[in-house]
Specification:
Number of strands: 12
Shape: globular
Radius of gyration: 20 Å
Mean pLDDT: 93
Helix content: 25-40%
Strand order of the largest sheet: 8-10-7-11-9-12
Structural class: alpha+beta
Distance between the termini: 42 Å
Largest sheet: 6 strands, mixed
Strand content: 15-25%
């Protein structure tokens, strides 16, 4: 199907858009029945399915003047794929719901789909269906389904004495967001990190195999999300700033904005690194670096004291 250059969703109609979208999403061997029927059928190797759902609202979770549709597609897919990664799993299939104004460009919607498909390709997942509806505001809903080899790593297993470690970059997207919010487009490395995160997809299964006792995806903020592990495990966590990486670009943004650059690392979200706890007598897997430790007690401290800076995104 060829989509006219200036076509809107209203021009294509629901089934015309579905036909165009079907050409964007490739098939995969785990998909027994893909888009086109009332439901898809996906193979489940060991009989268990890991599921995660996220909503992404225009002007709240993304802005079309800050990122292309292709980038936003990568962003919304990465958020869900990273959730499964944090359980030690791997996504196999996604469904995508799109609520959009009738005058939205059809090309924009198709570029969104291409971004989702490209991000799914990084882990071997496939888009197997979804839903479309008209709405006054643009909303993308993504559900990821996958599998875990072995026991899923939860937030509840951290124990006093465990080592806290991170895999992936942290604070970069927050720096990019701060730059964009002030009307700038550099440092480009941080802006691109905000537009298109790079979750460490291999790190989740790797940590599970290495005996991780608890794990979480950092989507809202490092202190906030580590706090979820501390509460679920009924322990205290101390983060050490000397072990946190603060790239030069964050120092530059901090100096320009009069902000301590470490705040981006401690309170920033959207990079989707993984934080996990490991028994102290085991070496950390490659790509993981120690950033703190677990102790008796409750809550999260930074360098042994309470932290009064921003801890992460607040949804309500």
């Amino acid at each position: 199907m060829t989509v006219p250059p200036d076509a809107t969703l209203a021009d294509l109609g629901e089934f015309g858009l579905i036909e165009a979208l079907a050409q964007v999403f490739p098939a995969a061997e785990q998909v027994l029945l893909g888009p086109g029927d009332d439901a898809a059928v996906v193979a489940v190797p060991d009989g268990r399915v890991v599921v995660s759902t996220d909503l992404h609202v225009d002007s709240r979770h993304f802005r079309r003047d800050w990122a292309s549709a292709l980038d936003i597609g990568h962003r919304v897919a990465a958020a869900n794929l990273s959730d499964l990664n944090a359980m030690g799993g791997r996504a196999t299939a996604l469904t995508v719901g799109l609520a959009a104004p009738a005058d939205l460009s059809a090309d924009w919607a198709l570029d969104l789909a291409r971004g989702i498909a490209e991000e799914c390709g990084l882990v071997g997942a496939a888009v197997v269906g979804g839903d479309l509806t008209g709405a006054d505001q643009l909303v993308v809903a993504v559900t990821a389904l996958g599998s875990v080899a072995g026991t899923p790593v939860r937030r509840t297993g951290a124990r006093p004495g465990d080592v806290v470690a991170i895999a992936g970059r942290q604070g970069w997207a927050a720096g990019g967001l701060a730059v964009l919010a002030r009307g700038f487009r550099s440092p480009r490395t941080l802006v691109e990190a905000y537009r298109r995160p790079e979750p460490p997809y291999a790190a989740g299964p790797q940590a599970a195999s290495a005996g991780a006792t608890a794990m979480i995806d950092v989507s809202d903020g490092l202190v906030a999300d580590v706090g979820h592990v501390a509460r679920a495990s009924a322990v205290a966590v101390d983060l050490r700033t000397d072990d946190l990486e603060v790239p030069e670009a964050l120092h530059a943004v901090g100096a320009a904005l009069g902000t301590e650059p470490l705040r981006f690392v401690l309170g920033g979200g959207d990079d989707h690194p993984l934080v996990a706890t490991f028994p102290p007598d085991r070496p950390l897997p490659d790509g993981w670096r120690r950033i703190g430790e677990v102790a008796e007690g409750d809550g999260v401290t930074v360098d042994g004291t309470s932290y009064d800076g921003p801890v992460g995104h607040v949804h309500f």
